[in-house]
Design goal:
Layout (H helix, E strand, L loop, with lengths): L3 E2 L9 H7 L9 H18 L4 E5 L3 H12 L4 E5 L2 H12 L4 E5 L8 H8 L6 E5 L1 E2 L4 E2 L2 H8 L6 E5 L11 H4 L3 E5 L11 E5 L1 H8 L10 H8 L10 H17 L1 H21 L15 E5 L6 H10 L2 E2 L11 E5 L6 H18 L1
Parallel strand pairs: 1-12, 3-4, 3-5, 5-8, 8-9
Antiparallel strand pairs: 2-10, 6-7, 9-10, 11-13
Helix pairs in contact: 1-10, 2-10, 5-6, 10-11, 12-13
Bound molecules: pyridoxal-5'-phosphate (PLP).
Length: 357
């Protein structure tokens, strides 16, 4: 039996997208691929509100997160850490042999403009990484306020992970001044995993061009040279790019404004359903994610048992991530989800809860 996915990634994939993945194969040096690549990247530019380059990498998000560090961190990187994925990005930065500091805020708290300003004012850093939507804690940091601060540090590379938020809310990459915006496709994009997308500003491409040790697989200069011919440095995951092409067309058919407001509506729906049942939010109200809800286990439920029972009923449920597993649980409402999908999950939880109390 297929368990319907309510975990924050991978998420449920629409059948039209799965069908698009079955498109007969083409060669990546054939004109058919150049046409596909050109169409996909031009739609991505519209979705991301960018005139910068947009590249397609065959890897999960962490491949490109490592690539960004290798290409863009020169003297020293400030890794803003407020959850499991941002903590790991700091670890990755160090493992790439870069000088880096973890600027930590408590799990459940956002990265703030104040902390970014205070950190970069030291003049120690030529690059920073942050995660817009910390999927481990359900916290969405105030990206536009941070972007305002970043304007005063034009020599600091602004590297942002939008894995679990891109397309669910408006993230205008150029207006925000993001030098490299990174996301994988298995979360907010609702595709199967294996493809990552990243942007590179002119500034980023210039920095990368002179960077030592940027390797080959994620070399920004290789991506730029190949993208100019609507191509990729090595063989891409063509089936997933067919899927991405299909999904971008579906997103524009839905309408971007409609997509953003659907996510806003779903977030409100999940929050009030949980609040009505006595569950408190893990993040402070102002920083709750629009794409997943991380809730405290306020009623002291045996979450492992709930997860098991929901699994038997056909639902994949998440009982928390990393050090807050068991204390929190997460419900994803990203990708192509609707209220009626959530109603199915809520009905199942309602039926099971009395037996667990
Ligand atoms: C899932 C996730 C990642 C890691 O992505 P992989 O595709 O597993 O490499 C990174 N950042 C965020 C915010 C995520 O949610």
């Amino acid at each position: 039996m297929h368990k319907k996915l309510f975990i924050p990634g991978p998420v449920e994939v629409n059948p039209d997208i799965l069908a698009a993945m079955g498109t007969p194969m083409i060669g990546h040096r054939m004109k058919e691929y150049a046409d596909l690549h050109g169409g996909v990247t031009s739609n991505l530019k519209k979705l991301l509100f960018t005139a910068d380059r947009v590249f397609l990498a065959t890897s999960s998000a962490f491949g490109v997160m490592e690539g960004a560090v290798r290409n863009l961190v020169g003297t020293r990187c400030a890794n803003f850490c407020n959850g499991a994925f941002s903590d790991k990005w700091h670890d990755v930065t160090k493992r790439c042999g870069k000088e880096a500091d973890a600027i930590r805020t408590e799990w459940g708290s956002p990265v703030t403009a104040e902390i970014v300003e205070k950190t970069l004012s030291t003049g120690k850093y030529d690059s920073m990484t942050m995660i817009h939507n910390e999927t481990s804690t359900g916290v969405m940091s105030p990206l536009s306020e941070i972007a305002e601060v970043m304007r005063r540090f034009p020599d600091v590379m602004f590297i942002v992970d939008t894995v679990s938020s891109m397309s669910a809310i408006k993230i205008p990459v150029d207006e925000l001044g993001i030098d490299s915006c990174i996301f994988g496709v298995q979360k907010a994009f609702a595709l199967p995993p294996g493809l990552a997308v990243f942007t590179a500003s002119e500034k980023a491409l210039k920095r990368a061009a002179n960077m030592e040790g940027r390797g080959y697989y994620f070399d920004y200069a290789e991506f730029a040279a190949n993208d100019a011919k609507n191509n990729t440095p090595s063989t891409p995951c063509i089936s997933l790019i067919f899927a991405l092409d299909c999904q971008l067309k579906r997103m524009f058919a839905e309408g971007l404004e409609n997509r953003w407001s659907r996510h806003n509506d779903l977030a409100g729906y999940v929050r009030s359903w949980l609040a009505d049942r006595g569950f408190k939010s893990f993040p402070a109200d102002a920083f709750r994610s629009q794409t997943l809800t991380c809730s405290c286990n306020s009623r002291g439920i045996d979450l492992a048992a709930l997860k098991k029972r929901l699994g038997e009923a056909g639902f994949a449920f998440d009982d928390g991530y990393g050090k807050i597993k068991g204390e929190t649980f997460r419900i994803a409402h990203m990708g192509d989800m609707t209220r009626s999908d959530l109603d199915e999950l809520f009905a199942a939880i309602t039926a099971i809860l009395p037996e667990l109390a």
